[in-house]
Amino acid sequence: MASPDHPPARVIAHRGASAWLPEHTLEAFARAIADGADAIEPDLVMSGDGALVVRHENELSDTTDVATRPAFAARRYRRQVDGEWREGWFSEDFTLAELRTLRARERLPGLRPTANDGRFALPTFEDVLALAAAESARLGRDIAVVPELKHPSHFAALGLDMVPALLRVLSKDAYARRAPMLVQCFEPETLRRLRAALPRDGRVRLLQLVGASPVFASLLSPEALRGVAGYADALGLPAAMLPLAPGVEGQRSALVDAARSAGLAVYLYTFRPENHFLPEALRSGDGPAARHPAGSVREIRTYLPTGIAGFFTDDPAIGREAVDGMA
Predict the structure, then answer these.
(1) How far apart, in whole angstroms, are the C-alpha atoms of residue 232 and residue 97?
(2) What are the Cα distances from residue 324, in Å, to 85, 124, 296, 311?
(3) Which residues, 6+ apart, have CB-to-CB distance to 150 below 8 Å?
(4) How far is CA 14 from CA 63, 134, 139, 158, 309, in A?
């Protein structure tokens, strides 16, 4: 239950309303806001001329129509990104003007609608901030923005440093100068650089992302969490990584309690409404691509009593229902 010490969890639209529309498009973000999201999450990569472009990955073939463009056929490369070999078309090999000619497509065509493939452009970070500003003014409530810096070390090695690029936007954009902002990254050193450069007024907060890889386990001990709190304000991890135990008012988590004791808010990712992504006990019997909103609500509500500060969801309307129904 919500209380002054345990306010309602924030509903963060993961790449927009990405269960309905191609992710990381202005249309997906607009729907997310209309569906009740408290915040929108744009992942950021870089163009070759230094723009912050909103894509999940710098390899573009999964989410755009670049593979169908004869003019760009020669830019298909095999490249190592953070130790993993990928083949395709990479954002750093395109100017912003070229990227703006591409159109988004559904990343999960076997599970989600493809009717909007080819309709929507690729936005920049500034485009998303402009949308958030306009919607905040229209609705009379601030829409928080939760950008994630993707592969900053990879881009820095190419001479494309994401930290000053982000800081320039945060200092120049009118909405960014006042909006609630939570910047995420998997790389601790990037967050440390941001902490050193940002004002200590608490408006722009930093979130250390943790993945399922064993390499992140060293960040989760009580002592390590206190160290993370030295440069970040929050911890983000997969819901499946959160051990739960029965408590007086529902499930509890020793990890959430330890993080909060260290001064870190905890956010969970990512809740999705299709059977394919739901725990087996919460699925309907209609096949992997079938939506099961009731199962998704039940999954989210399992974690709300632990005291998480918020969660990422591909379907913000379901997230809103889960939170509001617990009030």
Answers:
(1) 34
(2) 43, 32, 14, 14
(3) 43, 44, 45, 55, 56, 57, 58
(4) 15, 20, 20, 28, 15
SS3 category, 230: coil
Q: How far apart (Å, rounded) are the C-alpha atoms in residues 315 and 323?
A: 13
- DSSP for residue 23: T
Which residue from 245, 325, 255 is spatially nearest to 293, judged by alpha carbons? 325
User: From the CB of residue 26, how many other CB atoms can be counted at a distance below 10 Å?
Assistant: 19
The per-residue b/e assignment along 3-12, b for 16 or more CB within 10 angstroms, e otherwise, is: eeebebbbbb
Contact (CB, 8 A) for 126 and 132: no
Residue 19: other Cβ atoms inside 10 A: 31
Pairing of strands 84-88, 77-81: antiparallel
**Residue whose C-alpha is closest to residue 32's, from 46, 14, 48, 5:** 14
Compute CA distances 207 → 28, 122, 149, 250, 282, whole Å.
23, 25, 11, 26, 29
Closest C-alpha to 86, from 76, 96, 99: 76
Name the 3-class secondary structure at 218.
Answer: helix
pTM of the entire predicted model? 0.96
Query: What would the pLDDT profile of 246-269 be if each residue is shown by its tens digit?
Result: 886 788 999 999 999 999 999 999
pLDDT tens per residue, range 105-160 = 999 999 999 999 999 999 999 999 999 999 999 999 999 999 999 999 999 999 99
